[in-house]
Design a protein that fits this description.
CATH class: Mainly Beta
Number of helices: 2
Order of helices and strands: EEHEEEEEEHE
Number of strands: 9
Shape: globular
Radius of gyration: 13 Å
CATH topology: Jelly Rolls
Helix content: under 10%
Strand content: 35-45%
CATH superfamily: Protein of unknown function DUF192
């Protein structure tokens, strides 16, 4: 698992910085957040490749950001309740966040997501 941050570059030159973890193996992708302590604050979990996620067994709601191969946000799904599935066929990767992070940071479709170690 890589530690770093996600930089979301939005319109009008604004930047959002989220502390993050990124999967590096198939096992990490399969276990996902269920194998980790709960996300806190604006902490993020970037899963790649991944265009679908589930919240089976999760203890809290998630916000989901779907990102295409060019690292552009192509889908946003706020407040995904427990025991649900969501997908985006255009996505190459998914960023999971605690519920409320998308709204609090005004993250939009078309913003660019960059990984920084």
């Amino acid at each position: 698992m890589k530690q770093g941050k996600i930089v979301i570059a939005g319109q009008q030159g604004r930047h959002i910085y989220l502390p993050a973890m990124q999967t590096t193996t198939a096992t990490e992708r399969m276990k996902g957040l269920l194998a980790l302590p709960p996300l806190t604050g604006d902490e993020a979990f970037w899963i790649s490749p991944c265009n679908s996620v589930h919240t089976f067994g999760m203890a809290y709601e998630l916000d989901l950001i779907f990102v295409n191969k060019k690292n552009i946000i192509c889908g946003l799904v706020p407040q995904v309740k427990k025991w649900r599935m969501r997908f985006c066929l255009r996505a190459h990767s998914t960023i999971e966040l605690r519920s409320g992070v998308i709204a609090r940071n005004a993250i939009k479709i078309g913003d660019e997501c960059l990984w920084q170690s």
